């Protein structure tokens, strides 16, 4: 009898390498970002096929605002275009789009596009796609601390009653389970301020492939690798 394959409930991807992909082809970095849309579609298809319930994509970090203005502008435009173009297919697939990060820093146009895709896809039940936009873990944790401090100051919560669950529930990711598998493309082996609290026991996978070259087969490979991992959560096996 074959053992049932272990499928991660939540996969998170640090989509990295768009700039290098473009530079290797003598193109502008922005063309690398545009080429990064198809791998998003491929990842979604593969995630749905495997029965993954949550897919988080790190699309823009709080630090990414420091990039050249033209690149930031092109990324904003790409976000608006992509959410509009992809909406029908997302609805068809039963994908519900949500967001983590601080959206108030985006222009009204970007905020409107994000709100629209969230409401259009609100009834999706197959998979929740969580876009990390203007996201960084330290910023998220800092905002969570502010929320908790306000509750303590208002007398709703005693400091000694703050537990790990209180913190988890104050984060942007409160409605979602922790990621089981984090994939970062382009060979870089770091988290770059992504889901630091939530990644406590995540399995990490660092394929060399640059994000624009990421395919459904690459996603399948990550799932296969995950199935081989022995997750112990600090415990002793079989005891
Ligand atoms: C990831 O690709 C996309 C974003 C950070 C928005 P990069 O733009 O970081 O690509 P590299 O790392 O420079 O190749
Ligand atoms: C992380 O990639 C952010 C996203 C993929 C959105 P970066 O390219 O910004 O991270 P560093 O600079 O290599 O750490
Ligand atoms: Mg990068």
Walk me through the structure.
By secondary structure, the chain is α/β, with parallel strands linked by helices. The protein has a single domain (4-136, 179-228), classed as 3-Layer(aba) Sandwich (Undecaprenyl pyrophosphate synthetase), CATH 3.40.1180. Helix content is 43%, strand content 15%. It has 8 helices and 6 strands. A 6-stranded parallel β-sheet has the order 3-4-2-1-5-6, sandwiched between helices. Helix 3 crosses helix 8, helix 4 (69-93) runs parallel beside helix 5 (108-120) and helix 6 (137-153) packs across helix 7. It is globular, with a radius of gyration of 19 Å. It starts with 9 loop residues before the first strand and ends in an 11-residue tail after the last helix. The mean pLDDT is 97. It binds 3-methylbut-3-enyl trihydrogen diphosphate (2 copies) and magnesium ion. The site of one 3-methylbut-3-enyl trihydrogen diphosphate (IPE) has 11 residues, from strand 2. One 3-methylbut-3-enyl trihydrogen diphosphate binds next to helix 1.
